Amino acid sequence: MNIILLGPPGAGKGTQARILVDGRGMIQLSTGDMLREARTSGTEMGNKVAAVMDRGDLVTDEIVIGLIEEKLEGDNGGGFIFDGFPRTLAQADALAELLVTHGKTLDAVVAMEVNDEALVARITARSTCGNCGEVYNDQMKPIPADGKCSNCGGTEFKRRADDNEESLKQRLMEYYKKTSPLIGYYHAKGQLRWVPGLGEIDEVAAGIAGALDG
Ligand code: AMP
Predict the structure, then answer these.
(1) Residue 33 burial by CB count (10 A; 0-12/13-18/19+): exposed, middle or buried?
(2) pLDDT (tens digit, 9 = 90+) per residue, 4-31?
């Protein structure tokens, strides 16, 4: 099945996507990860979007739609998880068209319910493994005491350049202005399923499993 994980920055979309990848053989398509990779490898597009991302603004629809389009070719294993995409109504329309073109369907949109206070606390405490991208949180899921990533054994951890209070404010503003209308859009299509996003990681994962299988 192909699904969208929808929610504001810090809702835990990336963490939950990785659980679905491990448990169901799904393929995570995170436009945020793709854009960060483009920045790190210094591609022309990566350089172009760097400042936009650091400010907390959205990059153009054209760029992210292009990134997703490239990934839809071929087999999708246990299905795609769209993580951080779509973020605008234009992206949602483009995704619908792309799926039709590739003979695929969208089976569910999982909306993660959280509150802004929790998002600020989570994001300012977040770090990721520099090797595999496993997400840690100083409170909820600290880096293991031996300093090694529990997923790959990596020993370098980094914080995202846009995980600071000022960028987060702007990212939240972008979410409410441009992304939250997608809730109505997918509700109208009968595809929206709400899941509480505030509990422990395993509890949220169980909620998502219930929403997908129920
Ligand atoms: P994320 O890792 O999903 O929080 O994305 C980090 C940043 O990448 C966002 O703040 C945007 O600047 C950019 N970005 C990621 N996905 C999209 C998208 N679908 N549309 C526009 N910008 C995006």
Answers:
(1) middle
(2) 999 999 999 999 999 999 999 999 999 9
